[in-house]
What does this fold into?
Amino acid sequence: MTLFLVKRLIMLAATLLVAAIVVFSVLEILPGDPALVMLGVSAQPDTLAALRAEMGLDQPAWTRFFQWIGGLMTGELGRSYTYDVPVSELIGERVVVSLPLAVMALTLSTVIAIPLGVIAASRHNKTLDIALTGAAQFGIAIPNFWFAILLILLFSVTLQWVPAGGFAGWDAGFWPATQSLLLPAFALALPQAAILTRVTRSSVLEVLQEDFVRTARAKGLSRNAALWRHAVRNALIPVITILGLQFSFLLAGTIIIENVFYLPGLGRLLFQAIAQRDLIVVKDLVVLLAGSVVLVNFIVDLGYAVLDPRLRSGGGHV
Amino acid sequence: MTLLSIENLCVELEGPNGVCRLLDQVNLSLSKGQCLGLVGESGCGKSMTAMAIIGLLPQGMRAHGKILLNGEDLLKADEERLCQLRGRKVAMVFQEPMTALNPVVPIGRQVAEGLRLHLGLTRHEAETRASQTLARVGLPVERFALSLFPHQLSGGQRQRVVIAMALACGPEILVADEPTTALDVTVQAQILDLLADIIDEFGMGLVLITHDLGVVAETTDTMAVMYAGRLVEDGPTVEVFERMAHPYTRGLFAAMPSHSSEGSTTRSPLTTIPGRVPDALSRPAGCPFVTRCGFATDLCSRELPLMKTLGHRHNAACFNIAHVEEGS
It folds into this structure.
């Protein structure tokens, strides 16, 4: 188990480094001079040169890369051109919106999808299965921003249960803050839950064909007991793989959803930073997001080891 | 005392091309402490018979006839009753120990599960019983902790776990579907010895499904030969081996590889039964074996031979038994 952890941790660090190199290179290659953007096209050449020197843009790319990486390691993320505040401060303010949102969405989709998928599989080709599969297909087909608008129309405009947008802030108390995240979390969770339901269903169906399910039945377990006690845990292994992969889609989704709901989260910050060519913010944010994806996959790997004893190393033959 | 009695068991599968009969008029009986061998090549209906006994036929298959366990007809029992009987009165050992165990559940819990379900034992009691049962099948807890997972055991050890699971609740009938096919030859002998010891010790009945006539000769008291979903010959093992009346039984016997006694370097090629088992949808009108039989006559392709008594509980379904016996 320790060896397993060490291996995964090394993988984690390596993936992050590669992500940083890719992000840096892409932004290097991209046309557009941040100094020019800040000063406007009519800027004087000498002012431009001075600003470039101040921002370190006159130094060779690899020097800037190592400075940046060193900064990331020590928490010195640099200063935003447009907001003129430290990037770490900028990110800190927004993480408290985006992280709870992502966790809520992921939890919602898991809690909805896994039971539905298992139930659909246990009623294979019966009415409930067909209804659930159809609903899941529908869920996949609906774009989440449109679903978000429908949610706003129903719950905010018509029923007036929750605010239509904006974030109350955690200072306003737990419930008001959670309330403003509920609809966005649902909007994000729906397509994920739809996909996850289908994956769970097919995975459970496959496992139900396995010999050990028949063995469990031969022991005297009822169909449902064999399903929940023996099939589901085996079926969850591919499901958590998809769950890990979905996390990156979830992050991409937050960019849109945070804009629809006017939430001051990381997705909106990234969107604004790109629009304003605030390259330092973009670079730091993308590495942060990449890092969180890698971290979630690391957790997924640990999840495999919990679910499947065969993946824990060190268990040889007796 | 008759423990299990199967009368006119038929299993049918309703398909797009009409009803297809997979088992036809199977009659078997098994007494306490006895071993019944069920022999035949792949696809002859041996496993189907086993699944019918334990009530786990695949969806879409219908069984009729009677399967009497101590006089209770299992085919009339509802699902709830069957769940009570499975594992408690009738237990099963499967062919593939590699896949028959749940890979993510420790072996102790897999053995204890039936005990908690049927006997209502607490977790601790069930684990104690499980470790006793595992010790009985040759996996003492000192070397084989209850917390081991199936992947940490060899094939033979896993099959012992499967047997322990089947034995745990002290069933009256054990159905073993080719329990040794997936194992090494040396391990095969150990597992068969274990099964033989267990039926002696617990006085249960064993239905042993195999295609290995050597195993049948060594282990069973009575035997039944199946072909294309029907019985073609049955009787006490000794008598069937002494006087093989059905050409198919003879064919199976001749197809067993044998050692040449003089240790000569020339090997005779293996004898085979030409042709294949007819598909369940396109079985010939007469005797199902007619296309592969050396003794076939016109009558064989027109009419289905019924079981004829040849002697003490020895029956065979063939029109030409006299010719077959002369030909030997």
Remarks:
- The two ends of chain A are 18 Å apart (CA to CA).
- Chain A touches chain B through 25 residues (CB under 8 Å).
- Residues 314-318 of chain A have pLDDT under 50 and may be disordered.
